[in-house]
Amino acid sequence: MEAITAEWNEHRNAPKVKVMDLLVNPELRWPLIICVVLQMSQQFSGINAVIYYSTSIFQSAGLTNEDSELATVGTGLVNVLMTFISALIVDRAGRRSMHLTGLGGMLVFSVLLVICLSLQESVPWLSYISIFAVVVYIMFFASGP
Fold it and tell me: Membrane-spanning residues where (predicted)?
């Protein structure tokens, strides 16, 4: 009880932080900038587009409508599974390295996906690589950002 009371008194006597202090105080500004940049990296990563168009990508790869919908569900399961795996290894691997590795992998496989989708009319076997690129892209997203 003494520890709880001491912590409560310390909390009560702590100075109040206002929103403007986040911009003015350099000790608070850097954490704010880091949080904003991390959120922007997640939002601008393109994951929403990949998930939204994954069914169309799978259909253009030659899968039937039903199979492409099942493949989209499968990518969702891969996303959940990799999220759990990354939660288990994040303390050993480090948050920064996992985030940067995830973003780097997403960059590589999004470029591969664009190349495969652009050339799959002339080179039909690239459609299978586009399926692989979507799945690996989602794996990197789940383990990074």
Answer: 70-90, 102-120, 126-144
Give the chain's domain count.
2
102, 129: one domain? yes
Q: How far apart are CA 79 and CA 54, in angstroms?
A: 13
Give me the pLDDT at residue 112, please: 94
Range of the domain at 11: 1-44
Strand intervals (E) in the chain: none
Question: What is the number of alpha carbons within 13 Å of residue 45 lying toward its C-beta?
Answer: 28
Say what angle helices 126-143 and 65-93 make with each other, to 10 degrees. Answer: 40
- Own/partner pairs, 71-75, CB within 8 angstroms, 24+ separation: 71/131, 74/135, 75/51, 75/134, 75/135, 75/138
Angle between helix axes 26-43 and 95-119 (nearest 10 degrees) is 30
Residue 23 one-letter amino acid: L
Could you write out the DSSP letters of every residue in 23-48? Answer: HH-HHHHHHHHHHHHHHHHHHTTSHH
**Is pLDDT at 13 greater than 90 in this prediction?**
no
- Rounded to two decimals, the pTM is 0.79
